[in-house]
Amino acid sequence: MILPIVAYGDAVLKKEAKEIDKDYPKLNELIDNMYETMYGAFGVGLAAPQIGLAIRLFLVDTSPFADDEDLSEKESEQMKNFKKTFINAQILEEEGDEWAFNEGCLSIPDVREDVFRKPKIKIQYQDENFDTHVEEYDGLIARVIQHEYDHIEGILFTDKLSSFKKRLIKGRLANISKGKIKIDYRMRFPAMSKKR
Question: Which residues form the active site (predicted)?
Fold first, then answer.
């Protein structure tokens, strides 16, 4: 089932998410719905706060990046085959010289900006079976994970922009929170949530 994606301005996007255990109600169904929602919006990642749940759960599928001409054959192959669910994730290390990449977010449609992030991460997380993994990633995969991880920490990519850039996009962000945008996937806007 495709769920509405929470738009910029909703308080849930600024909350630090809580850990869950294997008894979390209908977790497998939730994960399936999140993948369907992400694919329906042509995303490469989706975090639970983006569907209104302040829990430490996000998923990533970088296969849409596999066709990027700037990638080496090895990187392209990695992108094509990278699909994972991250539960109760903790980034243990981030290292290397920060590099810029133009990021967007399903909760902030039609806004893209260069964000600086470190190229290598070490992350501990649990999979759908609650088996614990500690893994290292670099490049675009690391970046997508960092972006989604930020969501469960209550951080948006726009929080990482300079105050000048934030001023430039302030009006666009206000329009998103009011629902004054055209999008081709389901969204829930803060103004609508308050009317309930």
Answer: 148
133 is in an annotated binding site: no
User: What string of DSSP letters covers 147-182?
Assistant: HHHHHHTT--GGGGS-HHHHHHHHHHHHHHHHT-S-
Instruction: Categorize the per-residue pLDDT at 192 as very low, low, confident or very high, splitting at 50, 70 and 90.
Output: low
Catalytic residue, candidates 69, 98, 148, 153? 148
Q: What's 157's domain CATH number?
A: 3.90.45.10
105 assigned ligand-binding residue: yes
Residue 103: active-site member: no
- Whole-number percent of the chain with pLDDT over 70: 97
43-73 tens-digit pLDDT: 999 999 999 999 999 999 999 888 777 777 8
Alpha helices by DSSP H, listed for the chain, are 27-40, 73-80, 139-152, 163-178, 190-195
Range of the domain at 17: 5-195
Name the domain count of the chain: 1
Cα separation of 62 and 80, whole Å?
6
Predicted local distance difference test score (pLDDT) of residue 191: 61
Q: How open is the CA angle 60-67-83, to the nearest 5 degrees?
A: 20
Q: How far apart are CA 46 and CA 107, in angstroms?
A: 9
The two tokens of residue 119 are 């190229």
Residue-wise pLDDT for 85-129, tens only, equals 999 999 999 999 999 999 999 999 999 999 999 999 999 999 999
**154 has binding-site annotation:** no
